Every structure is written in C-alpha cells, then in structure tokens.
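Researcher: I need the complex structure. Ligand is nicotinamide-adenine-dinucleotide. Inputs:
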Amino acid sequence: MSHQQNQSSRRRFLQQSVMTGAGVSVPYFYSTPKTLAQETKSKNDRVSMGVIGAGGMANGNMRAARDWVDVVAISDVDRGRAESSNQNMSAGKATLYEDYRALLDRKDIDAVHVATPDHWHTKPVVEALLAGKDVYCEKPLTLTIDEGKLIRRIQEQTGRVVQVGTQQRSTFNLFVKAMALVAEGRVGKIKRVQASIGGAPTSQAIPVAEVPAGLNWDRWLGPAPKVDYRFLSGKGRGKTNCHYEFRWWYEYSGGKLTDWGAHHVDICNWALTLNGQTEGPVGISGSATHPVEFKNGYPVEGDRYNTATAFHFTLKYPNDTELVIRHDERNGVLIEGDQGRIFVSRGALQGKPVEDLKDNPLPEDAISNVYRGMPMERNERAAHWANFLHCMRSRESPISDVHSHMKGLNLCHLAGISARLGRDLRWDDANERIVGDDEANSFIARPYRAGYQIDLPA
Ligand SMILES: NC(=O)c1ccc[n+]([C@@H]2O[C@H](COP(=O)([O-])OP(=O)(O)OC[C@H]3O[C@@H](n4cnc5c(N)ncnc54)[C@H](O)[C@@H]3O)[C@@H](O)[C@H]2O)c1
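Model: Output:
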C-alpha cells in the first residue's frame, strides 16, 4: 500500500472510529475481509445444529445465526418451550428430545448450542465434546472453578472447538476497539481495571407451587440438590427458582458476580493479558451484602433469592496491579494505565485516549492484532456466532475460548466464595486453588446429585 493510500485509509478509520455506541457504522476494515455469508457458499456449508436448553437466550442466538445453521434437534426439559422454540428456530422441523443425550447420539449433528441454566452447562458440554461435537456454550461456562479444569482438559483431549457466549468479545466498536487501544499502548502500563456491575434483586419468601405441566422438574434440577419448585406470580414473569430467575440462587448460578462478571471481568482480564500481565492475582479482599443470612457459606433460608445484592472486591497482583469487581449501577469496565484511562460499556467508549484518536488514529492492523477469526457481521451476537462457525471450519481457537474465559471466570467464582464465607482469601493462580483455607477450597467444586454425575471414559 502506498503512503497516500495508507493516509487515506487512516482518515477513513478516523472518521468512523471516533463514533461509538450501538448502531454505529462498522469500522472500515470490515468492508474488505470475507464475511461468513461469503464463506458459506452452498447448502452443504450450513451447520446442522442441536440446541440444548431452548429458553430466552437460545432463541435470540438462533435468530442471530439463522443464515448459517439449521436447527435439526432441540432438547428442553420443558415441553412447551421445546415446542415453541421449534417454531421459532426451524419452522417446526426439528426433532424434540427431553433428554439431550439422545441428541448427542445423532451423527448428523455437527455442533451443539448449550444454553441451559449455569448449573447445567458443564455436564452437557463435556458429553458433547466426547461425542465429537463442537460447542457454543453460553456464559458463564461453569458453576465452579473445578468444572473449568475439567472442560479445559476434555477440550484439549478431543480438540473440539468451544466458543463461550461472551459476545462483548465480538463488539467491535466498543470492547474490541478498547482492547486495540490497550494493545497499542494508549493507556500505558495498566495499574487498575474495574468491572462495575449492578446488584441482584431480592425476593420475599416464594411459596412451593405445583410444577407446571410439561416441565420435568427433576431433570431441570439435574446435578443440583433436590428441592421443591417455587413460584409467586407478580409483575413480569413472577418470582421462581426456575426459568430465568435461577440467576438469583447460588444453587444454579453465581448471581450478578458471574452473570455479568463473566462479561466484564473477562474484558478486564483480556486487557491485562494484552498489557503483558502474565501472573494471576494472589488474593481477594472485600465484602458483599446478601438478602438472607449465610452460615458456613450457605443461606439459612431456602425459600427466597440468595445471591449478592451489593459487593466490592479487590484482587491484587504480585506487581501491585488491581482488579476490582464492584457493585455500581454504571455498568461497564474502567481501564486505568499510567498514561491514560478508558471506560467502555455496551453503550460508550470514553476517555482521553479515545478523544486522541482524531489526531493519532489506530494503525490499520490494530483490530486484527487483537481479534482472531472472522469479524464482519450485522451485530455483536451474529459476529460472535460467525467467529465460532468460521473456527469450526478453520479449526482455530475462537475469540472466547475456554482458557481465556476461565482465567476471568475463576476470579468471579473466587469473589463468590469470598462473598459467601465473608472473608478475604489467598489464591494460587497457577494451581487454581485457595491457599490455607480448607473450607473455602471446598467451594471450588460441588457435589453432583445421584443420577446426574459426569461419567468420563476410563
Ligand atoms: N451472553 C449473554 O449476554 C446472555 C444473556 C442471557 C442469558 N445468557 C445465558 O444463557 C443461559 C440461559 O439463560 P436464559 O435466560 O435463556 O434461561 P432460561 O431459563 O430462559 O432458559 C434455559 C432453558 O434451559 C432448559 N433446561 C434446563 N435444564 C435442561 C436440561 N437438562 N436439558 C435441556 N434443557 C434444559 C430450561 O427448561 C429452559 O427452557 C444462562 O447460562 C445465561 O447466563 C447469556
């Protein structure tokens, strides 16, 4: 490229890159690479997909991926959800299964999308990998630290492609551009990163209720402890320990610490990695507020939401860098370096290094240096799917692979353990263990209910 051409493309980048936020025109570099549509030339290139857990997120995801995948099988433990999703995802043509293992037995299925509640991620992901499928699993990938070790091991053994649904990693105008600024040294050496996340809701006591027709409650609970189904009607979807609201129970989720931490702490960790931070944190300090009393890490009442409503945790690195996870209604990520700071969220990218782009634009390869794989699609969700489907063909590691995801998610899990026990913890990042605290270490794994253990080949 001549100097003149270089200048003119830099100017184009400048014009487009200073605009931020949703709905902004895509940066110029998108206009040249192939799109997945170009790569998916014939019917034979379409991917036969099985969906496990056909709730709100799976339906949104299958809309985003509809140009490239055929949903041929759907598994949901709620018959009504499986049937309505069949209409939405495949005009009623998919085969429905209550037990997802029948779906994994099918040889015509190339990949599976796991979008069950968090307590039901690890088992189907591991079994799908062992059945030879590539997997797109929703975030947070696991409910515990040890589950991450298992998924990584099986992914390495099988060589399958696993994408985690942290679509902020494919949001080019905001998060990816922020990462490019970090990688280009525009904030200097990072001293502090901060993930700000809103708190979880509370509930009053939610009464035991009759299990709705078509819902297999025992299978919905799966590996989690056997408890009654609860429901209280009210505004919106009502309060329950089941669909969508599972997020507010530690039995099925980590609350906001993992629900949003999986996104924002992942971005903090990505920034630190690009900035050359090789060592993990050595400990966590801070506190959280819960809507119920906790004893030995467990809620004393089992009839209402129990995850943290407020929290403030600091993870310290050996070189004094800090990663903060805090409750704050201004949801987003703050990256503070010795030469500048940037704030990035789903609606904004701000700070002096961003303003400086008008005089000092990013080099042309700044984005491709931080983002591997297929970039261009209509929105971040479609782009994240395109990245997965592209990596299925190329056998590259996708942009949210299990290794990078667990590096960030482990810190969210650690914050959850500290929150539940109400004390600071020391952390051995290399071995992914809590130091000198047996009780805290007992939370890095969880017991699986009989009949729902993960069977690994000998
Ligand atoms: N990437 C994002 O921004 C994002 C946004 C929302 C949700 N999510 C994630 O997606 C996942 C699902 O969330 P949701 O809001 O769609 O929940 P949901 O409750 O609406 O849907 C989950 C579905 O899984 C089904 N299910 C439960 N156990 C099953 C099993 N063993 N086999 C088959 N189906 C089973 C349920 O019946 C339900 O239909 C969660 O892990 C959540 O964190 C990610």
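Model: Summary of the prediction. The CA atoms of residues 122 and 402 lie 12 Å apart.
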